[in-house]
Amino acid sequence: MSSPITGTAAGVPFTALPPDGDKTAPLIVTWHMLDAPRSDAAFAAALPMNGLPAWRVHLGMPMCGARMVDGAMDAGLELIREDVLMSFLHAFVKQATEEFPEALAAIRAQLPVDDGPIGVLGGSLGGAVALRVLADTGTPIFAGAVVNAAIRMRSVVGLFPGDYPYDAESEKAVDSLDFLPKAGVIASRAPLLVVSGELDHPGLRADAISLADAMGDQSELLSIPGLEHPLADEPGIEPAPQLPQARAVDAGVTAWFRRHLGV
What we know:
Blueprint: E1 5-9, E2 12-17, E3 27-31, H1 40-46, E4 55-59, H2 74-82, H3 84-110, E5 118-123, H4 125-136, E6 141-147, H5 153-157, H6 168-176, H7 183-189, E7 192-197, H8 202-215, E8 219-224, H9 244-261
Parallel strand pairs: 3-4, 3-5, 5-6, 6-7, 7-8
Antiparallel strand pairs: 1-2, 2-4
Helix pairs in contact: 2-3, 3-4, 7-8
């Protein structure tokens, strides 16, 4: 098994796991959770997808991992206190999506990946990034997968204490990150594996089931017994041994991408 490669792509930190052999290979891009594992390196350890004949390039989300302010998550927590939707959830997804095209070009310039369609995978808030790339961009994609994903941002906002004070701007923002109405568009773009922990937050689990149902035969739902929302133990910043539930997720997404790579 090759060692991880770390670097930056157009300013976005990444942890890349190469396929076996030296030949050019397809690319799968991931975006991690903001729960544990909350960095690209930690997400790569939780879901390495070993054995796939593809590069797995795990991108860092804003203000996480190598982009933490002063080596801590405190600045991100301050954004949650400021405005959980507009300063934190929507802002992070927006930034990660907008910086992706240049990051993808930089990855292709740095690593021996082919120029064909890519795979995308996202966990939790990173799942919203993967879904936005599917629904709102023209990037060619051969298959996607999401794990305990933020499928309807209203459901995620509802996990935080208090009633969120929606106004016209925040209503527009939260609705732009509701992917249930975009299920048809996503289905037309690529097949999607929807992975949902049976012990995930009830609202997020319901959204996962609804998205898989809405996409019909272009989607599969994979339920993971015993899996709560995180995929790793706290603090979730550094790579850690793979938990049993994460191993089950890893096996599922690996088989899914292998099938759609045609190998």
